[in-house]
Write a structure and sequence with these properties.
Elements lengths: L1 H19 L5 H25 L7 H13 L11 E5 L7 H7 L4 E5 L3 H14 L4 E4 L10 E6 L5 H8 L3 E11 L3 H6 L5 E10 L9 E10 L3
Parallel strand pairs: 1-2, 1-4, 2-3, 4-5
Antiparallel strand pairs: 5-7, 6-7
Helix pairs in contact: 1-2, 1-3, 2-5, 3-4
Main location: cytoplasm
Enzyme class: transferase
Protein name: Ribosomal RNA small subunit methyltransferase G
Length: about 220
């Protein structure tokens, strides 16, 4: 467990503190590490029966689920924003964001009852009061949010199509991509502004590199 905690803290420090300017507080990082490792243990335990993720290696989960999810923070301030995570699955990226941004109000939207059961378990055990869980598809939700996020659930164009009704007037979309973003962006209508942040995920081991990630902010033009 100590090796995993040290690995998480190293990843958190190298990517998130350096790239996203999160506070470099040893005590706070220790608390966060404990929460994320508990999340990891619950994910592995439930995954045996509920098929929550195809990734089984613990370090790979830390990099490709936890750290990858926290990259969204490059466009999420510490203000008390309302955020909808569409098709959250096992809680990515919504739960990692909720852990690090306790003032944000995160709504996890997921149609699978099995995944909803897991999300409720994590919310209860980690005492995440800033999370709401809704068993539904995006099209069935009528609330409005400051930010609507998703993690490679659709193409960018389809993401906007399915979720445009969820966005407040001054709100914006966030989506994570690793490939073909130029092609997808070219297919967007001109009325949208695009801002992109590029990251290099930490290497998992000597033979497996983390890879590139692009966090894309999409908002309507004011015209």
């Amino acid at each position: 467990m100590k090796e995993l905690k040290d690995f998480f803290k190293k990843c958190f420090s190298s990517i998130l503190i350096n790239s996203l300017k999160l506070p470099d507080d040893d005590k706070q990082i220790e608390v966060l590490a404990d929460k994320f490792l508990f999340y990891l243990s619950e994910l592995k335990k439930w995954n045996k029966a509920y098929n929550l993720t195809s990734i089984e290696d613990e370090k790979e989960i830390i990099v490709k689920h936890f750290i990858d999810s926290l990259l969204y923070l490059c466009f999420i301030s510490e203000n008390p924003l309302s955020i909808a995570d569409i098709g959250t699955g096992a809680g990515f990226p919504g739960i990692p964001i909720a852990i690090v941004r306790p003032r944000a109000k995160i709504t996890l939207i997921e149609p699978s009852w099995k995944k909803n059961a897991f999300l409720k378990n994590i919310k209860r055990k980690l005492e995440l009061e800033n999370i709401e869980i809704i068993k539904a598809k995006a099209e069935e939700i009528h609330n409005k949010f400051d930010i609507v996020i998703s993690r490679a659930l659709w193409s960018i164009k389809d993401f906007i199509k399915h979720c445009n009704h969820l966005l407040k007037k001054e709100g914006y979309f966030l989506i994570s991509k690793s490939l073909k973003i130029d092609e997808e962006i070219q297919n967007l209508p001109e009325r949208y502004n695009i801002e992109i942040r590029e990251f290099e995920l930490p290497d998992i081991n000597s033979s497996q590199i983390g890879g590139k990630r692009y966090i894309i902010k999409i908002e309507k033009c004011e015209s």
